[in-house]
Amino acid sequence: MFKTLDDLPDSQRLLVRIDANSPVEDGEVRNNRRFARHAETLRELADAGHAVAVLAHQGRPGRDTFVSLEQHAEILSEHLDREVRYVPDTYGEASLEAIDGLGGGEVLLLENVRMVDEELADRTPEAHAESALVETLSGEFDAYVNDAYSTAHRGHASIVGFPRVMDAYAGRVMETEYEANSAIQQREFDGRVAMVLGGTKADDLIGVMERVEDTVDTFLMGGIVGELFLRAAGYDVGYDVEGTDFFDEQWAEQEETIRELLDSYGDRIRLPVDLAYEDEAGDRAEIAVEGVEKETSFLDVGSGTVEEYESVVADSEAVFVKGALGVFEDERFADGTVGVLEAIARTDCFSVVGGGDTSRAIELYGMDEDDFSHVSIAGGAYVRALTGESLVAIEALKR
Ligand SMILES: Nc1ncnc2c1ncn2[C@@H]1O[C@H](COP(=O)(O)OP(=O)(O)OP(=O)(O)O)[C@@H](O)[C@H]1O
Ligand SMILES: O=C(O)[C@H](O)COP(=O)(O)O
């Protein structure tokens, strides 16, 4: 097992990796449950008198969610009820100076670690440990704490590099999510098991589908991923809204695998029977997938699909959710995501909802977290844990 905060010596200078990757709307970073959860870890460390420098990422280069962490520092300050200083630099002169001035009980947020090219480089953990980022920052601290459970599946420098050269501990979020999600993996279900798969990241979900073949009876597809499956099934769908680029690259990469999955899983994969879009008046409109004739950017599954998915949920003993069925952040296109989540909440089935964005729908639409067995703040990491795949961050902490 890994070491936890219970094992930390007193008065340490700590480098703490959190995952505050958040939705960004019109340049504004949206507060979400990740902040509140990580704030608990940071409060515990600061209250204990440790000096805390925080490392985190936001978005990916090339995406419009790829922004600096200045707003994250403000949001964290509100949650912590103490100032979180921010330095617009990750391991250069400015950040080293700020780290130098960091006292016990203080919290400093370094700049988006994905602004350092080495972070995302495709390298082994050994090579990551030799990067300038890791070599420089590791020399400034006594120990490294990884609380970023939701990034635990990414073999990036800040996740797998530091634990090779520093004393490493799991933060509270890492510890509790790991325990909860491993417990799920060990359960056995007598009845039917359904998995709701949506959102934007096809490669994550396809990996899952291949691994849970023996456990899951029905896959309920939606979101961008659902449209990719519909396209593979012969429907003329999968067109981006202006300014987004979800479909073409993923289609080129995944077309063949999606076709194979459709062939081999047959009826176990349920695809949307209707979809919703914004009409000329700006209202929600729906169309059956059979009737789609012109290029349309769809933003939700339709009401016929929700009805079908609700009845699958009602017949299931366990339901796992990863990814939203539509752009639920816009009330007009929340019906799919909210409809299915409410159907789950109405039953007493064992249920797990994951996905940093998706789980936010629970809060946004006034649902009660207690109606679900577990709500994870992780997306890809949660799904991998669920399917028994090991997480590189956990392996690194266990070394
Ligand atoms: N048809 C669609 N068009 C555009 N975006 C969509 C569509 N359907 C769902 N989404 C978006 O998918 C997002 C959720 O999926 P995503 O795969 O990003 O994340 P997640 O599973 O919640 O979390 P994580 O990022 O933690 O893996 C939502 O923000 C929603 O707006
Ligand atoms: O939000 C997440 O799922 C994590 O922060 C990982 O982000 P990524 O999918 O961009 O690597």
TrEMBL record:
Subcellular location: Cytoplasm
EC number: 2.7.2.3
Catalytic activity: (2R)-3-phosphoglycerate + ATP = (2R)-3-phospho-glyceroyl phosphate + ADP
Binding-site positions, ATP: E329, G355, G356, D357, T358
InterPro entries (alphabetical): Phosphoglycerate_kinase, Phosphoglycerate_kinase_N, Phosphoglycerate_kinase_sf
Top-rank lineage group of the source organism: Archaea
Molecular function in Gene Ontology: ADP binding; ATP binding; phosphoglycerate kinase activity
Pfam families: PGK (PF00162)
Any one annotated GO CC term: cytosol
Family assignment from sequence similarity: Belongs to the phosphoglycerate kinase family.
Protein name: Phosphoglycerate kinase
Species for this entry: Halalkalicoccus jeotgali (strain DSM 18796 / CECT 7217 / JCM 14584 / KCTC 4019 / B3)
The gene coding this protein: pgk
